[in-house]
Specification:
Layout: H1 3-14, H2 20-38, E1 45-50, E2 55-65, E3 74-76, H3 77-83, E4 92-96, H4 102-131, E5 137-145, E6 149-154, E7 157-162, E8 177-188, E9 191-197, H5 201-211, H6 213-216, E10 221-228, E11 232-238, H7 246-251, H8 256-264, E12 269-274, H9 279-286, E13 294-298, E14 303-308, H10 313-317, H11 322-331, E15 334-339, H12 340-345, H13 348-360
Parallel strand pairs: 2-3, 7-9, 11-12, 14-15
Antiparallel strand pairs: 1-2, 2-4, 5-6, 5-8, 6-7, 8-9, 10-11, 13-14
Helix pairs in contact: 1-4, 2-4, 5-8, 9-11
Amino acid sequence: MNQELLNAIEYLEKEKSIPHEVLVETIEAALMTAYKKNYTQHKNVKVDLNIENGSYRVVSRKDVVEEVEDTTAEIDLATARTLNPAYEIGDPYDEDVTPKDFNRVGAQAAKQAVMQRLRDAERGILYNEFIDKEDEVMTGLIDRVDNRFVHIQLGRTDAVLSESERMPNETYTPNERIKVYVNKVEQTTKGPQIFVSRTHPNLLKRLFEKEVPEIYDGTVEIMSVAREAGERSKISVFAKNPDVDAVGSCVGARGARVEAIVNELGGEKIDIVLWNEDPKVFVKNALSPSQVVDVVVNEENQSTMVIVPDNQLSLAIGKKGQNARLAAKLTGWKIDIKSEADAADDGSLDIKTETDAAEDGSIE
């Protein structure tokens, strides 16, 4: 076995943490396969490998019998006793049957086995490295763009960004750096396949965790995220400590923290709202920046009717219903928005007044 192969074995054992026993078994199995493929004189054979110096031998195991019927698997007692008088019928007899020209064949088989194990080890290490990165944000370098994917270099391997995970307002140019959310890692025969996203709501969450120390250390908690990637997002935050301004922490001095995230997402608008366990308050906050007159909650249907000033109706609904849609995703409540005038016309204001009065205990 040549020095190159021995060096590869040492590398696998020390650098890739592949157990010594596994390497021995791998090479012995490869040598066994090579022997059986090229030589057929013996049936029951095994390979003994000395991985320290690279030597190996092929051993044929035969049964000691009175009369031989199969020379490939049996040896007669008299012959066996010429080698060792202690042999008895039924004992196993091991004979070195290493072919003279097996060194070349065996070395090639061993080399292929070790190289394959090296490739498998590299794939396993990469997979283990990136499986821990699922649900995290990584910075990569755009390598190339083809019909299916944007290929992004993440250290020693590439990730793929599919069309459905790309932001509609972005272009992807080779050699540009980009932050991506690691959505899924799969092990394949060619190594780990890493799928990343620029549209996932958790990308926004992870960016806030990196940008806002209060979120990273748990002082401020992100309660929910609603996102229409490339256009607008809403994020609700909460701090158990009443002295901590959860929204202000995320905005940062002069808006520096949220601005950094907006810039990373290509100008995507971000509304940061205060979470509240009271759905009336939470829905009202979620419809920011519009003003809200009142929120009527229907617990049974998990729905709300929101009444806004007449001049705030379009702002509350948003362009193509976006503000209301994001607020509903953020809160988990259905939201029906009405202007004060419409609410007065259909009696909703009366319902609101009666509801409020009942809550105050003024209606019996």
